[in-house]
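Data card: per-record layout.
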Amino acid sequence: MPGFPSPFGSDDDDLFDGYDEFVDDDLPRPGAFLDGHDVLAGADHLAFHRLTRDCFEERKVYDMTFDYNLARLNLDTRHGDAGFRYAVERGDAPDAVHPADVDAAAFDGGVDRVLRAEFTPTTAFCPQTHTLTIGAFRAWNGLSDRHEYDLVRVRAAPMHNQSEAVNDRLAELESAYLETGDVEAESDDGAGVRSNPTGGTGGASGRGRSTDAPF
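The structure for this 215-residue chain is written out next.
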């Protein structure tokens, strides 16, 4: 596996906000997946995003176009409308996680605290969106002992031209995870590992994803 550079500084640091700066103008607007839920802002957003940086670093969730930890996209002033926004899921929402969807043995105590994460890519045709959102889902939920949420649900923003296909795949992985407690599990419909629905390589800027790839 090729090495990855450190995301914690570079020669062009003046192009990036700090991990302790909440700059609303340099973040994407919360979209439909977060509508009606408690969107994180200020110190709450910053705390979870710093944790995200560490989770992504451990699982090597990197944006290969820019060659940095995906969490850094939120700070990149050249792409002020791209990155992640987060919201705490309201349990009374029509599409909230239902207890019947959760395997009690896999999740001792159930799934009570859920975070939603919506990813806005830099362009509507970003070929990495499929791979990056799956990588983010597996990083957050595979390292769930690092944060206070029982589940982090991930979706791509609707501005992406293949958001429906990407989000269908994320929903399948989420369902399989709730049934098994395993972030690598596949759903019972036998879907298996699918190719990238965005038509890209599914990997790092043209590199194919090997069997020992991150996430």
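Known properties of this structure: Residues 1-11, 190-215 have pLDDT under 50 and may be disordered. The helical segments are 42-59, 129-142, 163-180.

See the next section for split statistics.
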